[in-house]
Amino acid sequence: MDTINYEQFVAVDMRVGKIVKVEYNEKAKKPAYKLWVDFGGEIGVKQSSAQVTELYSSQALQGRLVVAVVNFPPKTVAGFKSEILVLGVPNEEGKVLLLSVDDNPPLGSRVF
Q1: Domain 6-104 in CATH: superfamily?
Q2: Which residue of 51, 56, 90, 103 is most buried, as measured by CB atoms within 10 A?
Q3: How far is CA 97 from the centre of its chain?
Q4: Do the beta carbons of residue 18 and residue 62 sit within 8 Å?
Q5: Separation between Cα atoms, residue 13 and residue 90, nearest integer Å
Q6: What is the pLDDT of residues 32-82, one digit of tens each?
Q7: How far apart are CA 65 and CA 77, in angstroms?
Q8: For position 8, what pLDDT does the model report?
Q9: How far apart are CA 91 and CA 105, in angstroms?
Q10: With a threshold of 0.85, does the pTM exceed it?
C-alpha cells in the first residue's frame, strides 16, 4: 500500500451531510438513486448519483446523515449531474453500505 502525507489527506474534503431528497434514476444502466445532500450554509445542497438501491429504500435514505467528498469535479452520470461522492464500503456480498456518523454533528462538519 502506498502512503500519503497529511497535506494529501486534507486535500480530500470530506464532510457530513444530510440526504434531503431521493429519486430513482430511470436512465442509469445499473440501479441508482439521485441524491440531494445538504451540507449546511457554507456548501449548501449538492447532488450525487449512488448505486445503493440493493440495501436502501428511498424512504430509508431520506434524512440520513452521510459522509461525502465535496471537492471532486462534477460529472454527469446517466443524465444526472453528480457533484459529490457519497462514501460507502462493500459488505460481504459486495453491496454498498453507506458511511455514517454517530450523534448529530453540524451539517458540513469536516472529517479529519
Answers
A1: Nucleic acid-binding proteins (2.40.50.140)
A2: 56
A3: 11
A4: no
A5: 22
A6: 999 999 999 999 999 999 999 999 999 999 999 999 999 999 999 999 999
A7: 22
A8: 96
A9: 25
A10: yes
Rounded-to-integer distance, Cα 33 and Cα 52, Å:
7
Q: Judging by DSSP bridges, how do beta strands 85-86 and 65-69 pair with one another?
A: antiparallel
Identify the burial level of 45 via C-beta atoms within 10 angstroms of its C-beta, where 0-12 means exposed, 13-18 middle and 19 or more buried.
Answer: middle
Rg for the chain, CA atoms, rounded: 14
CA–CA dist 39, 95 (Å, integer): 25
Q: Annotate the chain with DSSP letters as a single string.
A: -----HHHHHHS-EEEEEEEEEEE-TT-SS--EEEEEE--TTT-EEEEEE--TTT--HHHHTT-EEEEE--SPPEEETTEEE-SEE-EEE-TTSPEEEP--SS-PPTTPBP-
Q: How far is C-alpha 12 from the chain's CA centre?
A: 14
CA 90/CA 73 separation, integer angstroms:
24
Q: Find, among 21, 55, 49, the residue nearest to 37 by Cα.
A: 21
